[in-house]
Design brief:
With 130 residues, the chain is mainly α. Helix content is 51%, strand content 11%.
């Protein structure tokens, strides 16, 4: 019988197991890219409730799971709060320059589109509780 804490452990790929294809797939979705941009800007762990996304709670959970299983983020519980952190060091070591290039390209696209996405990214935290 599992202990109460055991169901709260989340599986993550070890650094050596992270592959480019799932990382690129995870970053290809606009909602997931938005999550990654917010984590990169924060440079700290953020709770799931920090993000206000234009999708249902179950879809939000799916997006976080895709990012975690690809090795883009690390999730863990602190008390009852699930925290999310960008695995920047692992990604930079495995795929030098990839994350910075994707983030710069996303920013350039946002600027090119008149800040529509930047405005949407700003809305991600507009009602954040932290």
């Amino acid at each position: 019988m599992p202990t109460p804490a055991s169901h709260r452990l989340l599986e993550h790929p070890e650094r050596e197991e992270i592959r480019l294809e799932p990382v690129l797939h995870a970053l290809s979705d606009p909602v997931r890219l938005r999550i990654v941009r917010e984590l990169a800007a924060a440079e700290t762990e953020l709770s799931c409730s920090y993000f206000v996304l234009p999708v249902t709670k179950s879809t939000t959970t799916h997006h976080f799971r895709v990012l975690r299983e690809a090795g883009v983020i690390r999730q863990g519980y602190r008390g009852t709060t699930k925290l999310n952190g960008l695995r920047r060091a692992a990604l930079d070591a495995l795929f030098p320059g990839l994350l910075d290039t994707v983030l710069a390209a996303a920013e350039a696209q946002s600027v090119r589109q008149g800040g529509e996405e930047a405005g949407a990214a700003g809305q991600v935290t507009a009602t954040a509780s932290g």
